[in-house]
Specification:
This protein is α/β, with parallel strands linked by helices. The chain has helices at about 30-35, 55-60, 75-85, 90-95, 105-115, 130-140, 150-160, 175-190, 205-220, 235-240, 265-275, 280-295, 300-315, 340-350, 370-375, 405-420, 430-440, 465-470, 505-515, 525-530; strands at about 50, 60-65, 95-100, 120-125, 140-145, 165, 195-200, 225-230, 275-280, 325-330, 355-365, 380-390, 395-405, 425, 450-460, 475-485, 490-500, 515-520. It is built from 20 helices and 18 strands. The chain starts with about 30 loop residues before the first helix and ends with a helix.
């Protein structure tokens, strides 16, 4: 295994035993030579290495992004697919090819087949994002949707081999691995001389195997670190057990790396060339998508951002006494993102980067409680505030989102609320709360015959919610409150107020004096059906 001069340093380790190469195996040299000889640039492009200035400033290190999202199919997979297919004998090409893929390999195979003028059958899981399916069809691929996972699609694809079609494996093939390894060639060509670590996404392992095989041959001191989704970590498990293992299930958020079992050849190579593996959560991937957008104004898919998430986790785990400025490269492997997923990603990014806390807070069911709670929060920006009156309780349960500056800030906030008599439960890492509860807080309220419902719009700025509550006053009891910061320059609030008939005239005058844009929704059928 490769000699690694960093093995005596106290670099972070995320596996049970980090992989420390100390010699290059002779059997790997043919793949290294294939990387050098790969003729892929009549279809693939040499992508840039982009500095991540904001993230570099935040961590105090020199961070770069390898932009594989800039390939013609917006993914690195084109490299391996074309390197494999262009080597086929002409008589094999004439019969056609078949592959199984969650999307990115499929696009690479389809475009390669189009370039070479051959038939391509592409089997994709039915869960594949529409944008990837449409791209494959646009490039002439014959799409077959089958199963919910890659492994089910793979079984279907292999049945076409009996018809004479050549199977193009997405990762477990030496020519595919070599094609992906050209990224390592470009990183060493383009990057600074003092690269400390290269962070590589891992699904089946073809990219990590190829990049590691190339870098460790020429620069064994550079750390090659794989990054997997925590719910699809088949390579991490295989390396820890020193044998390939099959996961019972995989998470589909990062569909491009959702593989139950690492490739056979990929496992053997990664065992030789990887220094470590980091696993990251979907929330951490969402935060990394935001980081990539801020650095490049491009939107990565979750699997494309996984390496940046791993790089951040690695830097955050560095020893506190580390004073060395490190140069690191993260491979952005793809940008085939469905537009419909962006709202979910934006919501989760703040939690992934420890910038939003989700809390359940109990407050007295009495006039003025809201204002007092917001006053105790002080200068904290409130990102969400949900409440529905329940007359059978003496205390109200508020679902609240608060912008924070990290985990310690969150802990200090909870302590402040508890010390002021507010029973507080931290829901920040509660999956049900993040996915479902924030959208379902509410319900019908009985014994509230004088309830009126209003939508308000006001300028979004620090302290805006407190100013709104101050002006709303304490004459009328709040029975419903829903606010969510959507990142726009205005805030939107749905408010229910108990307005007895004898105070209606003064209430209406007060509303007009507030100066906010509002619309009464008391007769809205959505309210009458679900909240009244």
């Amino acid at each position: 295994m490769v000699n690694n001069s960093d093995t005596q340093q106290s670099w972070p380790q995320f596996t049970q035993s980090a992989y420390k190469p100390d010699g290059y195996p002779a059997w790997l040299e043919p793949i290294f030579r294939d990387i050098l000889q790969a003729r892929i640039y009549d279809l693939a492009v040499e992508t840039p290495l982009t500095p991540m200035s904001s993230l570099s400033q935040k961590y105090g290190h020199k961070l770069h992004l390898k932009r594989e999202d800039m390939q013609p199919v917006f993914s690195f997979k084109l490299r391996g697919a074309y390197n494999r297919i262009r080597k086929l004998p002409r008589d094999v090409m004439d019969k056609g090819i078949v592959c199984a893929s969650a999307g990115n390999h499929a696009q690479g195979v389809a475009l390669s087949a189009k370039k070479l003028g051959i038939r391509a059958v592409i089997v994709m899981p039915a869960t594949t994002p529409d944008i990837k399916v449409a791209s494959v069809r646009a490039n002439g691929g014959e799409v077959v949707l089958h199963g919910d996972t890659f492994d089910q699609a793979l079984a279907k694809a292999l049945s076409y081999v009996d018809e004479g079609l050549e199977f193009i494996h997405p990762y477990d093939d030496p020519s595919v691995i070599a094609g992906q390894g050209t990224i390592g060639l470009e990183v060493l060509k383009q990057g600074p001389e003092d690269i400390h670590a290269v962070f590589v996404p891992i699904g089946g392992g073809g990219l990590a195997a190829g990049v590691g095989a190339y870098i460790k041959y020429l620069q064994p001191n550079i750390r090659v670190i794989g990054v997997e989704s925590v719910d699809s970590a088949s390579m991490k498990l295989a390396l820890e057990q020193d044998e390939r293992a099959i996961l019972k299930s995989v998470g589909l958020f990062a569909d491009g790396i959702a593989v139950k079992q690492a490739g056979d050849l990929n496992f053997k190579i990664c065992r030789e060339v990887l220094d470590d593996i980091i696993t990251v959560t979907p929330d951490e991937m969402c935060a990394a998508i935001k980081d990539i957008f801020e650095a490049t104004r491009s939107i990565s898919e979750p699997s494309g951002a996984v390496a940046v998430a791993g790089m951040k986790k690695y830097l955050e785990a560095l020893p506190e006494d580390n004073t060395e400025t490190l140069s690191c490269v993260a491979i952005s492997s793809g940008a085939n993102m469905n537009f419909d997923r962006l709202r979910h990603i934006a919501e989760r990014a703040a939690i992934g980067e420890q910038k939003e806390a989700l809390l359940a807070v109990s407050i007295p069911e009495e006039i003025g409680s809201y204002r007092k709670l917001v006053t105790i929060l002080g200068d904290k920006s409130i990102s969400e505030f949900n409440y529905r009156y329940a007359n059978h309780n003496k205390k109200a349960s508020i679902f609240i989102g608060v912008q924070i500056a990290g985990r310690k800030d969150r802990e200090a906030l909870i302590e402040r609320l508890n010390s002021n008599g507010y029973e507080t439960v931290d829901l920040t890492d509660n999956e049900m709360a993040k996915v479902h509860l924030r959208h379902t807080v509410g319900g019908r309220s009985v014994d509230m015959p004088d309830e009126r419902i209003f939508r308000f719009i006001f300028p979004e700025k620090p302290g805006a919610l407190k100013a709104f509550l101050d002006q709303l006053g304490q004459q009328w009891n709040i029975s419903l409150f829903h606010y969510r910061n959507h990142g726009a320059d205005y805030g939107r609030v749905l408010v229910g107020l108990n307005v007895p008939a004898e105070t209606a005239e003064s209430f209406n005058a007060h509303l007009e004096a507030l100066g906010y844009t509002f619309e009464e929704e008391t007769e809205n059928p959505a309210y009458l059906h679900f909240l009244r």
